C-alpha cells in the first residue's frame, strides 16, 4: 500500500490523508481525538491516549457508547499484537427459563432484561495497568472536564441524539426510564447542534473510576448503585455479577490476505465474519473496484460468512465449530465455489468437514491501538443508573432464546458481539489499526476498507471515503447513492434486491492509521459519514 495512492479516486470527499510523526488519534468526534493527543503531550503513550479518547467518547458521543458499555482492543506493543476482550456476561440469574416464566419469548431491546455486565471501565483499567505510562486518573481527566464543563453538540451527534429521543419518548414509559430523560433530555429538551450539554453525575463517576482504578464500578460505591437500581425494578444484574467480572487477554485471530495479515478478536466477537469473507476471496484478482463483479463477489462472500456467524459465533467454549476450521484454506475454497454469477440465499456450511464508537491511536514509539466500545443499540437499554450518568448497555438483545442454538442465553455467558477492532500487519511489521463501527455493518465495513487498501491501493482517507454497500438479509442490499447507477442496475440483474439510500447511519463509521515501517510516519484517515477527526502532533 502506498500512502499517496488513489488520491484522485472519483468518489472521495476530497479530504486528504493526515500525516504525523509523533502521535495520532483518529475517531468519530474531534474533542475526543484531541483528548487523546493532549494525553500524549503530557507524556502518555498510545495506550494512555486510547483510554483518554474512549473515556471522552462516553461524554461527547453518548448516542453510541457510555460507561456502561463493553469494549475490545488490539494493542501493538514491543512488536507483538495483544487482544483484550472486555465484554461482560449475562447475569447469574438471567436464563431462558427465567424469562419464559415471565412470558418473555424474545429478548427485548430496552429495559433490564438485555442488560449484561459492562466491561468498559475494566478495559480502561486493564490497559492502563498493563501498558500505560500514566495513571488511569490522569488518562480520564479530559473526559471529566468535558462532562463537568460541557461541550457543544456536533451535527451528526445531534441528529442521532434527537432520533433516539423520539423513539424513547414513544417507547420508554416506565418509571425506571425517567433517569435517561433527566440526563439526556434535561428539562424536557433534547440538546441541539452547537448547544452545550454536561453531566456532573458523569464527571463524578469517571473521577471515582479513576481514583479506584475501576474497582468502584465492580466492587464499590458504583456497584452498589447499579445493584440497588436493578433490585428496585426487578432487574437481573447484581453486585455479585459485577464483582466476578474480569477482562480476558486473548490471542488475536487472522487470515493472510494477499501478503497482509488481517487480525481480529476471536469469538465471541464477529470479527470472524470479516476474516471468513476475506478468506473466501483471497485467491481472486480484482481488476477494478468499480464494476459489478467486484461488488457481487464481496456481497456473496459476506452473506456466506454471516450465515456461518449467525449459526456458530458465541462465547468460544460454547461454539460447536472450531475457529481454525472456519478459517481453513479448504473451507475458504469450498465457500468460494458456492459463489456463482447470480445472488443466492445464504446458508450456513459445515466447517468441520471441509451503534458503536471506534478509535485508532499511535505514538512515535511504535505503539498502536485499535479500540472499540459500544452500548450496542444507540443509547443502550434506555436505563441510566441514578446519580451516576451511567447508561447501561443492551448487549443481551443478541442472545438466542433457542436452547439448542450455540448463542443460546445462559447465566454467566457472553453473547455474540458485534463490535470488532481490526489490525493489519505485513511480515513482522505493524501496518496499523483500522475499524468500522455500526452493528452488523462492521465486518462488512472491514471487508471493504481492507480490500480498498490492499486490492485497490487506496490511501487511508480514500479507503474510508469510497462508497459502501451493506447486505441486510436475504437478497436485500443497500447501496450508498454515490455508487454508480450502472453497478446498481447490473447487481439487480444478478438477482440482488438493491436499494439506494443516502440515509445516515447505514454504512458505518471508520478510522484508519497506517505506519511507514521505514520512517515511522503515520498516515491517518477519518470517516466522512460522522463528525470524525484525526488529531496529531
Brief overview, please?
GO terms for molecular function: transferase activity. With 537 residues, this protein is of the alpha+beta class.
Please give a structural write-up:
InterPro entries: GGT-like_enzyme, GGT_ssub_C, Ntn_hydrolases_N. The chain folds into two domains: 18-249 and 357-398, no CATH class; 250-354 and 419-427 and 437-515, Gamma-glutamyltranspeptidase, large (L) subunit, C-terminal domain (Serum Albumin, Chain A, Domain 1), CATH 1.10.246. It has helices at residues 30-41, 46-60, 96-101, 120-131, 136-149, 155-171, 178-184, 200-211, 215-219, 221-232, 239-243, 271-281, 292-312, 323-326, 329-337, 442-454, 460-465, 485-493; strands at residues 18-20, 23-27, 70-77, 80-86, 151-152, 196-197, 248-250, 253-257, 260-264, 356-363, 368-374, 384-385, 390-391, 422-426, 429-437, 469-473, 476-480, 497-501, 509-515, 522-526, 533-536. The chain contains 18 helices and 21 strands. It has a seven-stranded antiparallel β-sheet with strand order 1-20-19-15-14-9-8. It is globular and about 55 Å long. It is of the alpha+beta class and 537 residues long. The longest helix is centred in the middle third of the chain and has 21 residues, at 292-312. Helix 1 runs antiparallel to helix 5 (136-149), helix 2 packs antiparallel against helix 4 (120-131) and helix 2 (46-60) packs parallel to helix 5 (136-149).
Amino acid at each position: 500500500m502506498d500512502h499517496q495512492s488513489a488520491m484522485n479516486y472519483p468518489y472521495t470527499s476530497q479530504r486528504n490523508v493526515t500525516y504525523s510523526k509523533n502521535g495520532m488519534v483518529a475517531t468519530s468526534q474531534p474533542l475526543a481525538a484531541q483528548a487523546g493527543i493532549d494525553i500524549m503531550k503530557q507524556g502518555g503513550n498510545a495506550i494512555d491516549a486510547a483510554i483518554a479518547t474512549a473515556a471522552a467518547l462516553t461524554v461527547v458521543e453518548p448516542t453510541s457508547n457510555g460507561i456502561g458499555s463493553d469494549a475490545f482492543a488490539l494493542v501493538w506493543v514491543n512488536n507483538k499484537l495483544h487482544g483484550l476482550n472486555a465484554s461482560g456476561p449475562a447475569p447469574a440469574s438471567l436464563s431462558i427459563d427465567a424469562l419464559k416464566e415471565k412470558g418473555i419469548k424474545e429478548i427485548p431491546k430496552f429495559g433490564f432484561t438485555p442488560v449484561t455486565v459492562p466491561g468498559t471501565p475494566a478495559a480502561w483499567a486493564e490497559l492502563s495497568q498493563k501498558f500505560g505510562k500514566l495513571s488511569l486518573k490522569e488518562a480520564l481527566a479530559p473526559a471529566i472536564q468535558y462532562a463537568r464543563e460541557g461541550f457543544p453538540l456536533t451535527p451528526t451527534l445531534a441528529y442521532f441524539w434527537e432520533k433516539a429521543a423520539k423513539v424513547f419518548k414513544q417507547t420508554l414509559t416506565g418509571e425506571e426510564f425517567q433517569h435517561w430523560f433527566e440526563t439526556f433530555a434535561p428539562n424536557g429538551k433534547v440538546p441541539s447542534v452547537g448547544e452545550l450539554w454536561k453531566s456532573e453525575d458523569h464527571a463524578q463517576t469517571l473521577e471515582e473510576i479513576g481514583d479506584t482504578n475501576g474497582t468502584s464500578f465492580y466492587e464499590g460505591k458504583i456497584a452498589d448503585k447499579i445493584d440497588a437500581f436493578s433490585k428496585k425494578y426487578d432487574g437481573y444484574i447484581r453486585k455479585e455479577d459485577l464483582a466476578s467480572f474480569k477482562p480476558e487477554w486473548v490471542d488475536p485471530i487472522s487470515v493472510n490476505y494477499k501478503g497482509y495479515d488481517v487480525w481480529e478478536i476471536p469469538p465471541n466477537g464477529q470479527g470472524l465474519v470479516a476474516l471468513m469473507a476475506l478468506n473466501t476471496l483471497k485467491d481472486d484478482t480484482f481488476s477494478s473496484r468499480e464494476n459489478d463483479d467486484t461488488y457481487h463477489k464481496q456481497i456473496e462472500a459476506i452473506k456466506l460468512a454471516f450465515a456461518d456467524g449467525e449459526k456458530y459465533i458465541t462465547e468460544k467454549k460454547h461454539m460447536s465449530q472450531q475457529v481454525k476450521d472456519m478459517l481453513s484454506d479448504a473451507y475458504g475454497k469450498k465457500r468460494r465455489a458456492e459463489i456463482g454469477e447470480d445472488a443466492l440465499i445464504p446458508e450456513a456450511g459445515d466447517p468441520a468437514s471441509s451503534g458503536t464508537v471506534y478509535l485508532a491511536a499511535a505514538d512515535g514509539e511504535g505503539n498502536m491501538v485499535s479500540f472499540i466500545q459500544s452500548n450496542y443499540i444507540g443509547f443502550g437499554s434506555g436505563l441510566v443508573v441514578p446519580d451516576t450518568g451511567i447508561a447501561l448497555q443492551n448487549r443481551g438483545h443478541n442472545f438466542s432464546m433457542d436452547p439448542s442454538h450455540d448463542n443460546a442465553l445462559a447465566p454467566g455467558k457472553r453473547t455474540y458481539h458485534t463490535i470488532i477492532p481490526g489490525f493489519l500487519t505485513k511480515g513482522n511489521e505493524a501496518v496499523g489499526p483500522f475499524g468500522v463501527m455500526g452493528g452488523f455493518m462492521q465486518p462488512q465495513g472491514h471487508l471493504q476498507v481492507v480490500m480498498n487498501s490492499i486490492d485497490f491501493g487506496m490511501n487511508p482517507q480514500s479507503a474510508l471515503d469510497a462508497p459502501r454497500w451493506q447486505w441486510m438479509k436475504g437478497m436485500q442490499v443497500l447501496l450508498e447513492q454515490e455508487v454508480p447507477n450502472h453497478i446498481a442496475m447490473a447487481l439487480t440483474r444478478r438477482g440482488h434486491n438493491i436499494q439506494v439510500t443516502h440515509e445516515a447511519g447505514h454504512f458505518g463509521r471508520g478510522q484508519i492509521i497506517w505506519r511507514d515501517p521505514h520512517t515511522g510516519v503515520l498516515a491517518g484517515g477519518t470517516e466522512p459519514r460522522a463528525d470524525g477527526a484525526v488529531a496529531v502532533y
